[in-house]
Amino acid sequence: MHAGFSLLTLLPGKVGGSETYVRGLLGAFGDGDGPERVTVLASEEVRRAYAGFAGGAVRVRDVPRWRYPEHAPLRALCIGAGLAAGRLLAPSATADLDLVHHPLTVPIPRAGACAATVVTYHDAQHLEHPRFFSRAERSYRAVAYDRAARVASVVVTPSEFTRRAAIDRLGLAPERVLASSHGIDHARFGPNGHEDDRLLDGLDLPERYVVYPANLWPHKNHERLVEALGLGADRELGLVLTGGLHQRRDALAAAAARAGVGSRVRHLGFVAPDTMPAVYRRATAMVFPSLYEGFGSPPLEAMACGCPTLVARIGALPEVCGPATEYFDPVSRESIAEALNRVTGDAALREQLREAGLARASEFTWRASARRHVDAYAAAIARTGGVTADSR
User: Fold this and answer.
1) pLDDT in tens, 29-78
2) Same domain, yes or no, for 209 and 115?
3) CB 154, CB 383: distance < 8 Å
4) Contact criterion met (CB below 8 Å) for 328 and 380
5) Which pairs count as long-range contacts for 60-63, CB under 8 Å and 24+ apart, including other chains?
6) What is the pLDDT of residue 92?
7) pLDDT tens for each residue of 211-223
8) What is the largest CA-CA distance in the chain?
9) Are residues 239 and 140 in the same domain?
10) Is the same domain home to 111 and 138?
11) In total, how many domains does the chain have?
12) What is the DSSP letter of 143?
């Protein structure tokens, strides 16, 4: 099997969890847990950023003169032109492939002579919570995400929750949609940190804190979290926030001040990937009050570091976290505060959550995810008549 892995719509270092997925999957493919051959379709920028993944079953193919716009409005405006360009790119980019996988959903390039396509549909948040998106963003996703899933041979989702959403919201046939959980980089996220003091030097962390790693998107629910911190019993407990979208920082700082916790909330912004595990290991707990998740890797990463977690009982999080966490209602400040009180005030409960979290996190590997993707690739080829490059 020769799979194309299209990264023509990737902006390296700027798409968060979906790029973690891309890197995890490619790493497992390179280790021999994927198709016999994988060709990454890349712009010049992606080729430079992903050159280290070449080797074993994986090679990187430069697609000349292709550049994906960096700014969201330009991406929205050019999606039609981009799809048209994808058709022009297809003959040269896909001629020797058995299938094309679009792990970032947008179907560029089109499959061309290779009829089989796989699309990863990360979540249906824009359909289930449209208030979090502008009209332009919803229109873009309707074409770039929803239509891509409807025309794909097979759709991969990161959870059964998202699989059901794709089936119900898009009208997809259940046999065309396959769930494959994401993995965790267990080499990075682990309970033992021998260099944590060095990694954390200069971050000015509170003595005791809970950590929430998330960009300041509306659905991440930061304002309710800082309000819940103000309702909590521990008046010394700090809240450490990581992630981008700095234009929302002032509004969040104002909310923290109104809640009387302005001095207890610290926003670190971007934290280097190698430093984040140390932040988890030093924390009293990790809190995750998001209002929607199609999967939810951060709680698992915290668990893998031995950090007790408390998460919202929404979306895919119960499916992912299972019994290894403390749950709360994310729309209730009181519920969040009560969960914070339970976990931060009870050392025995934290140890119980730590042990359960380590066991739970160990179940999620990129090796298992990669093998599940091979099943999706084989199903896509079968659905298009079993035609491969060798038989054309």
Assistant:
1) 999 999 999 999 998 888 989 999 999 999 998 887 655 555 555 555 55
2) no
3) yes
4) no
5) 61/93, 63/8, 63/89, 63/93, 63/109
6) 61
7) 999 989 899 999 9
8) 69
9) no
10) yes
11) 2
12) I
Gap between the Cα atoms of 371 and 381, Å rounded? 16
Q: Tell me: the pLDDT tens digits for 261-319? A: 999 999 998 898 899 999 999 999 999 999 999 999 999 999 999 999 999 999 999 99
- Sheet arrangement for strand 265-267: 265-267, 238-242, 209-213, 285-288, 309-312, 326-328
Alpha-carbon span 276 to 250, nearest angstrom = 24
Say if 37 falls within a structural domain. Answer: yes
Sheet architecture: strand order including 177-179 = 58-62, 37-42, 2-6, 99-102, 116-120, 154-157, 177-179
User: Where residue 381 sits, what CATH number does that domain have?
Assistant: 3.40.50.2000
Write the CB contacts of 352 (distance below 8 Å, at least 6 apart in sequence).
Answer: none
253 occurs within a structural domain: yes
Residue 71 burial by Cβ neighbours in a 10 Å radius (0-12, 13-18, 19+): exposed
Contact 359, 324 (CB under 8 A): yes
Report d(CA 82, CA 66) in Å as an integer: 10
Q: Could you tell me if 47 and 173 lie in one domain?
A: yes
Helices (H), the chain: 17-28, 44-49, 72-94, 125-128, 135-141, 148-151, 160-170, 196-200, 222-231, 249-258, 276-282, 297-304, 317-321, 333-344, 347-361, 366-383
Calpha distance 133→219 (Å, rounded): 10
Residues 90, 143 within the same domain:
yes
- C-alpha 127/C-alpha 142 separation (Å) is 9
Domain that holds residue 68: 2-183+366-387
- Assign 88 a pLDDT band (cuts: 50, 70, 90): very low
Q: What is the pTM of this model?
A: 0.90
